[in-house]
Specification:
There is one protein chain. The chain has two domains: 185 residues, Lambda Exonuclease, Chain A (Alpha-Beta Complex), CATH 3.90.320.10; 69 residues, no CATH class. By secondary structure, the chain is of the alpha+beta class. The protein has nine helices and eleven strands. The protein is elongated.
Length: 268
């Protein structure tokens, strides 16, 4: 057995701190580019900045309460106990998984999701969302098992169960992505930016020029040329988007090394 159990209660500050100290299954979709909510760079910031003691908010607490209810209902119908648990790989200590359910006796895990009707009605593993599938394959790799159940419900009482088979290529990709990302953490080197990443613009001259783009009257041709020269790219009121959030100016660095300043003018 190449994993060990970590005695933590899910949803506690201690659990959040533990999640921050490794690469969890909920991180894998981000690292494989399957997430629309985060990026590797944002994930890096989340694990390297801020206080280790985090607050468990109401939404998270509510989510864990729903999971408990759902798990209890599924255990009653299946006749199998699936207690939640936190585990680490002993071969790759950065690999952390916080499981919705794990039946040690039969080496089978459980991933539970509250879903809408349209998704609930879809059958077969081929219709599992890619980010959910990546999450489970990472969990299966960590727990060295061939069996996993994907359980969907709309109400916490009626369930649809899909058996998930191992996808070795996806498991390998997930483990490799986790390893590369953890190297970034260890070496204190942020992963590459994507076109969804915002990083602060600290240069006061550049901040001033960006702000000037959206003032009235609009900047003159000479002013626009100066800004263009400053950032080395094409700048105009119509082709450049600006984001001013909480008094800060943000830019996007795209992976092709082009600088694009992006933003929401409504927040200016």
């Amino acid at each position: 057995m190449s994993y060990k159990k970590v005695e933590l209660e899910q949803g506690t500050p201690e659990w959040l701190a533990w999640r921050k100290g490794g690469v969890g299954s909920s991180d894998i979709a981000v690292l494989l580019g399957l997430s629309t909510y985060s990026t590797p760079y944002k994930l890096y910031l989340g694990k390297t900045q801020g206080d280790q003691e985090q607050i468990v908010n109401d939404a998270m607490a509510k989510g864990h309460d729903r999971e408990k209810q759902m798990r209890a209902g599924y255990e009653l119908k299946s006749g199998i106990d699936f207690p939640p648990g936190c585990f680490e790989s002993t071969l790759m200590p950065h690999v952390h998984v916080s499981l919705d359910g794990w039946a040690e006796g039969i080496k089978t895990g459980l991933e539970m999701k509250y879903v809408g009707k349209d998704y609930y009605d879809l059958d077969g593993p081929e219709n599992i969302k890619p980010d959910h599938m990546a999450q489970m394959q990472y969990q299966m790799a960590a727990m060295e098992t061939l069996d996993w159940f994907y359980v969907k419900t709309m109400d916490g009482q009626n369930f649809k169960t899909i058996k998930v088979e191992p996808n070795i290529s996806l498991q390998d990709a997930a483990l490799a992505a986790a390893g590369d990302f953890w190297d970034c953490i260890i070496n204190k080197t942020p992963p590459p930016y994507t076109d969804q990443d915002y990083v602060p613009v600290d240069d006061p001259t550049l901040r001033g020029w960006i702000t000037r783009l959206f003032t009235v009257p609009p900047p003159s041709k000479a002013e626009t040329e100066s800004l263009r020269a400053l950032i080395g790219g094409l700048v105009s009121r119509t082709r450049t988007e600006i984001m001013l959030e909480n008094g800060k100016v943000y830019r996007v660095l795209k992976t092709d090394a082009m600088l694009k300043i992006t933003a929401n003018k409504d927040k200016a």
